[in-house]
Amino acid sequence: MNFKGDLSLKNRFPFRLGATSYIIPADLLSNVNFLADKVDDIELVLFESDEITNLPDAATVKMLKEMAERYDLTYTVHLPLDTWMGHEDESVRQRSVDKCLRVIECTAPLSPFAYVIHFHGDHPGESPSLDLARWIGGHRLSVERLLRDVNSRDLCVETLDYAYDLIEDIVSDYGLSVCLDIGHLLLCGHAPGDYLDRYLPQTRVIHIHGVEDGHDHRSLSFLPTGLLTTLIDRLVNGSNNSRVLTMEIFDEGALNQSLDVLSSFV
Question: Which tens digit of pLDDT belongs to each residue from 7-35?
């Protein structure tokens, strides 16, 4: 079954425009097929637990690679969310690292544009841990292990609810990249413009999504007036266009609205 529609912004920007692998209620390959002629990059949102996993098998990975070659696609891989890379329990930290490594090994044949990772806090809020030194040290150990299997520039640490300057030394010390999540910044009261000024040179992936009534991952029509204009202008006129701008939304209606919003910038 071919899901492709008419609205496409593929190859229309100097950066790579992306969407997530959860747009239509179907499997991974069906979503990639649906998106292949609309965007330049697809964020593979992968998870693994004792109960359920959506990691692609070898045959699926082969098909994903063939589709990427056929449609001029790249993939970004979002590493599992249920990981705690700085956890005080060493066994939990090690299991989190191992979970990420399994995803990295599985997707390596796709030569992903980037791997996106969360440095989750011990708890939500402005301070990620009551013991910041231990939490930061744990993340350094986790990063050192991951970098045996991943190029440092390809590992992108995402902005979450706490101030990013708490972890920017980890990012810079190991030569990692930044994943600027504009929706997270808006939801948590951080100023996207300040983050663009400070971190855009290190940014390889940007997640963009609107916020409505305290809920993020809405269509781009919910972004503040002028923010998208500023962002697109910075990306188009910047010196580094080797970036992916991912519409991090999860349904077809929001995708169509977002493509319509972005079409005005072509």
Answer: 899 999 999 999 999 999 999 999 999 99
Number of domains observed in the structure of the chain: 1
Other CB atoms within 10 Å distance of the CB of residue 203: 21
> 202 vs 75, 154, 158, CA distance in Å?
19, 11, 12
The burial class, CB within 10 Å (0-12 / 13-18 / 19+), for 191 is: exposed
For the segment 40-89, what is each residue's pLDDT rounded down to a tens digit? Answer: 999 999 987 767 788 999 999 999 999 999 999 999 999 999 999 999 99
Cα distances from 137 to residues 85, 119, 140, 190, in angstroms, run 10, 12, 5, 25
R_g over Cα of the chain: 18
Domain encompassing residue 169: 16-263
The Cβ of residue 219 has, within 10 Å, a number of other Cβ atoms equal to 21
Is 35 within a domain?
yes
Tokens of 123: 């708890």
This prediction has a pTM of 0.95
Q: Distance (Å, rounded) from C-alpha 247 to C-alpha 29? A: 19
> Which residues on neighbouring strands pair with residue 245, listed in sequence order?
17, 206
CB 156 within 8 A of CB 117: yes
Residue 9 lies in a domain: no
Q: Would 60 be classed as within a structural domain?
A: yes
Residue 10 resides in a domain: no
